[in-house]
Specification:
This protein has ten helices and seven strands. The protein is α/β, with parallel strands linked by helices. The protein has one domain: Rossmann fold. Strands 3-2-1-4-5-7-6 form a seven-stranded mixed beta sheet. Helix 1 packs across helix 2 and helix 2 packs antiparallel against helix 8.
């Protein structure tokens, strides 16, 4: 997952520096991975004290991602995926990487498994990803920066993707680490513009329900922890997050908490505070520019 330095607007990866917390390693910690260090654990502890339920929220976001991928691969028939700011793979029995989800699509034979391209600007993430996926000819982990939609035209990426066919693009858990100075809405529009019609955007983002909501006090505390420890982590309003889907057709049920996007059944427990501070959605690029929906 990509790190930022908002003081300058220049995006910088922490990389192998074990003395500084990394966005990718913090996420890895929340998902039960082992590729993290004490500074990353400390960040999770601080976030948990600010908004309880961080581990549950991380898994709710990842499970939403799994369901969205299965929908795109099994129901829609998307055969290629681009995971931006992909971060560190999570090995072990609960491994939930993009290529593993879409590879089990029931709609096609194994010979027609989808192609997955992961992108991150952190060399450590790229090295880990390549090591784990080296034997899979349909899966590729590449260095790159999600703030530049022209990356899609780079031969390093376009070699593996058919740019004339629909692509499922993932921006999960990453745009809230892109500051307003970098124009995250403009970045998403740029990606939507270069994608072929019928492509999909899958997104999760930290959510601020506003000062009138009781959850807002958790937002303020959690945001402060993010900015102090990682230098990024902005909560945005529903209107702001919906704006990322401008020009795209929202897939039902729209922009909702991750656990409410086509869950597998009724909830078995109450959602934690942290889970309620996330929104998720899937948007489709229409075939024409006419009649687009927000």
């Amino acid at each position: 997952m990509t790190d930022t330095v908002p003081r300058t607007g220049v995006r910088e990866a922490v990389g192998a520096d074990a003395g500084r917390p990394s966005i990718a390693r913090v996420c890895n910690r929340m998902l039960g991975g082992k590729d993290n260090y004490l500074p990353d654990e400390d960040v999770v502890v601080e976030l948990e004290s600010s908004a309880p339920g961080q581990y549950a929220a991380a898994w709710a976001s990842r499970e939403f991602q799994q369901r969205a991928l299965r929908y795109l691969a099994d129901v829609v028939g998307v055969r290629q995926f681009l995971d931006l700011g992909a971060g560190l793979p999570v090995p072990g029995p609960r491994r939930v990487d993009t290529h593993q989800i879409v590879s089990f699509s029931r709609a096609v034979p194994d010979a027609d498994r989808p192609t997955v391209v992961y992108v991150d600007n952190d060399p450590v993430c790229v090295a880990h990803g390549r090591a784990l996926m080296a034997t899979d000819e349909r899966t590729h982990y590449l260095p790159g920066d999600l703030t530049d939609p022209n990356l899609l035209q780079d031969p390093a990426v376009s070699t593996y993707l058919d740019l004339e066919s629909p692509i499922g693009v993932l921006l999960c858990g990453i745009l809230h680490h892109v500051g307003d100075g970098l124009d995250p809405a403009g970045i998403v529009r740029g990606w939507a513009d270069v994608l072929s019609p019928g492509s999909f955007l899958v997104l999760t983002h930290l959510y601020d329900p506003g000062p009138s909501d009781d959850l807002h006090r958790y937002v303020l505390s959690c945001r402060l922890r993010y900015l102090e420890t990682l230098g990024s982590g902005w909560f945005r309003t529903r209107v702001q997050i919906a704006g990322f889907f401008e020009g795209l057709e929202m897939v039902t049920p729209g922009l909702v908490e991750p656990g409410r996007w086509w869950p597998c059944g009724p909830p078995l427990r109450s959602e934690s505070v942290a889970e309620r501070l996330l929104l998720a959605g899937v948007g489709r690029k229409p075939e024409t520019t006419q009649g687009r929906k927000r």
